[in-house]
Amino acid sequence: MGHNVVRSQRLNHIVVVLLCSILIWAPIPLGSNRIWALSLLELMIFSLGILHLVNCYRYNSLLVTYRWQKQIVLPYLLLIGYLCLQMLEWVPAIATVDSYQTSQQILKSVAYLVFAVLISEYCQSERHLRWLLVAIIISGCLQASYGTILNLLALEASPIFGYADGDRARGSFVYQNHFANYLGLCLCIAFGWLVSELKTHKSEFDISKLLVSALSTLFSRKLILRLSIIIMVIGLILSRSRMGNAGFFTALGVMSILALVIYRRPPTYLKPLVISIFILDLIIVGSIFGVEKVKQRIADTSFAAETRDQVVIDSIPIIKEHLLTGTGGGSFYAIFQNYQPQFYSGFYDHAHNEYIQFLVEYGVIITVLLGFWLIYALWLACRTMYLRNNKFYKGIAYGCAMAILFMLIHISVDFNLQAPANTLLFITILTLCWQVRYLPTTKITN
Fold this sequence. Notes:
Oligomer: single chain
Number of domains: 1
């Protein structure tokens, strides 16, 4: 029996490492936003899913261990079930105008469900959660470093996939706003972890203790996390993404204010840390790497010149005609052509507004239900910040809540949830909201 437990733990470690590897891999092949890259990503996830099924059969265990995991799984099952109804057309008025794209959405949704189950089932200790966070931060730093280097070298095309970056950093993504969104999510998690490392009690001023504290910081996780944040902020600024930058710093400011209200004992250096992000990262580092160009892009934004707003306006008749049931998952481009009154300067296969796209494809009922689930995850993260005493879990809840706010802001002008790498990372963050709320505190060996 003891041998089986040890072997099961070994398998658990292996699965967590593979999950972390998938998170790091997902953005590398063009954000997995190509058929071949998405297929490879789905294959990796389904392979781990099969391994989980074999493991459950071998050790006579359930697919999910805790009741709270069902709250994570249920929305995915609801969405997948509804997509199947659209695909099969068994119910009058519930149908799709593009069966191929809807079938692809079903496959992606199943992969996302499997990944969420695997994250919630195998990352059930502080050690494994730390591995997961390390993978997220490594992925963000890799993307930021790659995007920054290419941008500063001003190459005509990227060396691997041959895409022209222009004057905006894109990392290994095709679209700079997907790159900015991905970095924003990674930044939120890194900042949340950094908050968990801050002290929650005030101490009297002592020069010797201050020096010891400063020296210990140089060799601690805090310095590594702070440097990681600077690297990712540089990448975010170089993306020149207006809402990516505005959304992140807005979420940072709003969440910092909320934390001071929610935390029963706010970290002592939370306010100085937030101020340092705005002063050091946004103003000083940003001035070196061109934050003025981002500000100029925001100032030069003209609603008359922006066709994205016109796409939203022209999508409203589709919503009105298919208000309850939608036109089918993934069908926006197929249906929008029939309602587009004029040719736009750009190519729009997505609505550049996830709220509009979800209403078009899934209808108001499914969209509202998924919205409530998202808000519940945000509320759960805030409750964790208030109720739990574990600093690590509270800090990660802070990062998750900040990431949700950031995503809610950014998807109002872009289609970040249509990029598999971004969606996979966001699903991981949403799953963490339940884990840090309900998992018991475990002692780890650093």
